[in-house]
Amino acid sequence: MEKMKRRRIRVGRVIGLLFACLLAIVLLFGGAKVIMSLFHKEIIASEYANVKETNKLEDDKMINEVFKETDKETKEEFIYAIHLPDLDEKANTFIKDFVEGIKSEKAKVTHIDYESMNAFNQYKSYIITATTYSEMDGLNPLNQVSQKKYYVNYDQEKMITLDDCIRGKAIDILSVENKCKTEQLQLVKINESGITIDANGKLIDYKYDENKTSFVMNNPKIPSILKYPKIDVEKRELDPNKPMVAFTFDDGPAPGNTEKILKALKKVNGRATFFELGSLMEVYPDTVRAVCESGSEVANHSYDHPWLTQLPLKDAKKQIQTTNDIYFSLTGNEIKLIRPPFGDMNKSVASNFSEEMVFWDVDTRDWESRSTEQIIKVAKQYIYDGAIVLFHDIHATTIPAVEQLIQYYDSLGYQFVTVSELLEAN
Ligand code: ZN
Question: How do residues 93-131 score in pLDDT, each as one tens digit?
């Protein structure tokens, strides 16, 4: 009996010992693995924690964070090393969205860092770069998943975008040249020779001295096309159930006459479109600004009234571009429409312009009759709801006709709209 008992004890001990050894081995290896991986992560984390002090402004406030996150369900671990500028609330909100977007990609290691620069002691630019790695040994560039960039720019304390640096027409031209949408153009940084633009991933150096008619920045060292303060034109609500008519006036500005038309329009809360010549805009800037300030529209009737299709294309483009530039320099607003002189246009020439070509539905032939009564008669005979009506504000006989027609059609319930408003309403 005793023998058997002792033997049983011995067997139990051996099993116990074996179990203990096994446990020890498991613990040892497991522990070592845990320790090693922790050590490894520490290396990675400390590597990313090293912030490159170069390319950062001295007065930058910074956010530095190195941390690990574990997915609650999969227990998978993720390492983040984040170095960001601490900017104003608005910028920080955008940056936070950017970081959250990167984190949602669930890369093993995410490293976010930035560089900042200063231009003319006025502009500050921040380029934030997020690099993600598919493996824990994120130091190996082969494991890099993606790199994404985010840009924040300031003019003194105000956050600015590409629209604050260059005008709408310049953005339109860039989007055509780079075959991308205007929303895909982004301001990267401002430096002392120009700005850098990201055009859907392609970086463009846009120099001040090569693009003198494009910049609208508020710095004496940067060329600006603006000669006068920008005029803000409020968009207004129209009643789609009431009839509309678009009065248009060619060949001005005509100081005195043009203002009389604006006055008549104001009485009925109306607007019209003035297809003006660039050469006359230069001479009468106050009249041009008065039209813009009244809410009426100024559009392009070329620089000095040539037959556009008869010109070399280069010169035709210059006729339009120069006039666009003059109007912008006077008001800070862009022209949207072209009425070619003599209605002379064809498809191949028109395809070179982003502006809409506008002709007319009713020609009052005011330039021919020079008779107030005749102009009124012709207009009343042909005007209908939705019509574009052609006049010339350079002729004094046209003005009383227009004043009477405005009162007459207002009494019939017509709304006096710009051509752009009419096109938008249809
Ligand atoms: Zn004309």
Answer: 999 999 999 999 889 889 999 999 999 999 999 999 999
- CA of 334 from ligand 1 middle (Å) equals 20
Distance, in Å, from the CA atom of 182 to the CA atom of 173, rounded to the nearest integer, reads 9
Q: Encoding tokens for residue 19? A: 């179990």
Alpha helices, DSSP H, located in 257-337 = 257-267, 278-283, 285-294, 313-331
* CB-based contact 292:231 (threshold 8 Å): yes
- State the angle between helix axes of 285-294 and 257-267 in degrees (0 to 180), rounded to the nearest 10: 10
Question: Distance between CA 401 and CA 405 in Å, rounded?
Answer: 6
Provide the edge-to-edge strand list for the sheet that holds 202-207.
Answer: 185-190, 194-199, 202-207
Exposed, middle or buried by CB within 10 Å (0-12, 13-18, 19+), for 145?
middle
The CA 250 to ligand 1 mean position distance, Å, reads 5
Burial of 405 from C-beta contacts in 10 A (0-12 / 13-18 / 19+): buried
Q: What is the pTM of this model?
A: 0.76
Q: How far is the CA of 226 from the centre of ligand 1 (A)?
A: 26
pLDDT tens readout for residues 205-256: 999 999 999 999 999 999 999 999 999 999 999 999 999 999 999 999 999 9
Tell me how far the alpha carbon of residue 305 lies from the centroid of ligand 1, in angstroms.
6
Q: How far is the CA of 409 from the centre of ligand 1 (A)?
A: 25
CA distances from 129 to 10, 87, 111, 137, 188 (A): 66, 16, 8, 19, 12
| Cα-to-centroid distance, 304 and ligand 1 (Å) | 9
Question: Positive or negative, the Cα torsion across 272, 278, 280, 283?
Answer: positive
